[in-house]
Amino acid sequence: MAGPILSRSERVGDMTLLDGARTKSQAHLLAISRRKVLAEPVTDILLARGNKDVVLSTAKNSGAAFSQYGYSTLVQRSATDDELAACTWSRPDIPRQHLLQLFAEASETVKLELTKKDPRKAALIAETVALASGRVQTQARETSTQYALAHARVLSLYDAGELSEARLTEFAHGEMFDETVVALSLVCDFPVSLVEHAFVHERSEQIIVLARANEMSWDTTKAILKLQARTRDSKQQSERSFETFMRLKVDTAKKAVGFYRLRERAKTPRLPAAERAGRSLIIQ
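The chain above was modelled as a monomer; its predicted structure follows.
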């Protein structure tokens, strides 16, 4: 009798659902996951405690709301569950940064599976996946209203000379993904596609290099790394990043950034002089 009550009764409040989600069996959790409306605190617990069926049912529920932690958990669990990945991908409410992360994780899984079947094609597979990831990231930026608004806001600050390190830190602390990526791109004079790639593919060392090359403080760098790592952030990881940050000399970081720029330019066809002159400061 508990199942129908938990899944359909409107008299069951959020406090009762939270208590049940924390203490009851997987069968009870599955019943809760089927309710017409689920609040973020409830889905957080369902995703943390639930088995595969519970998590999939929660992800399929169009009336379920997810926190940033919830989306991160869905993406992490999707890495080893193709059905969950497809379901999570199709949710219209998933924020862009989590959508990009989901694609990155799924692509790595596909790459590993194909490599097992034919190791000789491993290099070709890696290149194909990397190109696909870049295309999806570009398409996601170009079609995202959220990104367009963030880009316009940050660019206006840059043009007004108000895009400071402190403002960049504010964006990172506020978990403003697009604003942080665009701001870091402008401050570092670095392609936004490469900055976004570092975030999505968890390239913390690249972020540290950019920060050191531009002589940013550890506090700013730590805030950016925390946003990049999301729920995978830990004290041990932070300590390792700090050691890397302190060991890396500014001159070395600047040389590395210069190398990144040269490599990117070598991959990009050179525009005619007239077209180059007509280009604005809009980053790719």
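Residues 124-129, 269-284 have pLDDT under 50 and may be disordered.
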